[in-house]
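Below is how a single chain appears once it has passed through the pipeline. First comes the sequence as given, then the structure the pipeline wrote out for it. We keep one example in the README because the format questions we get most often are answered faster by looking than by reading.
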Amino acid sequence: MKKLLSLVIAFVLLVGMAMSTFAAPTPFVTDPLTKEEQATFTENSPVKKIEEFNWTTPIRCFDVNEDKMILLLFSRSSEYTVCVYNSDFEFQYGFSFDAYGTVACEWSGNDIMVFFVRSDIYAKLDSNGQWTEFYRVLYSPENRKLRDYLLYKKTEISVENTTYKIQNDMGMLNLIQVEHSHSQLIKIDENNNETILYDVNNEQIIRTIVVLIFIIGVASTAFFVLIKPIIQDTKKNKKN
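Resulting structure:
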């Protein structure tokens, strides 16, 4: 009965987040980090403020708050960058930091919550680029569902009469997404007019084709290595 109740609560939370008019922090069940853990985290994750952003990389995660401020997360190797834009997609400010493994982010008022999946740390980054709150996301089926929603399913947010969504526009290549990234940010007004605010679709297509060629090459090589002895044995048996 308790397990069924937990699943119902998780489902309600997910539906509520999907239907909300603006994004709210994910209601993870957490424990605070100790002072020693906080000091270690701060030392290992220094933050650098950036005044401009010119990467041509896909979006890893996004959020929009009640003031229609847009938050985008990008990554390049171990470097992650969170960028803040206004509703007209004018760059306001951004922060970069290093992290290993998957990272997600979302708004908490005017501050940014950053989820480090590998370490299960959920930390608050204020508008001055300082880590101010630190939590450990506890392991549970409910937290796992909330984490997966934040990482993979949070692709559309409505604020008042405006909808923002991230997407790929690559036809059949949309099916081949290794990193769950998105090449476009779309803004849809009350008259259903669409405006593309961010677009690296061409770059995403090239990356996807490269990945596809690599996968085909590895699969072909593996197949040849496995099938070659069988062919050779078949030829020997025919001669005998």
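The first helix runs from residue 2 to 19.

See the next section for the split statistics.
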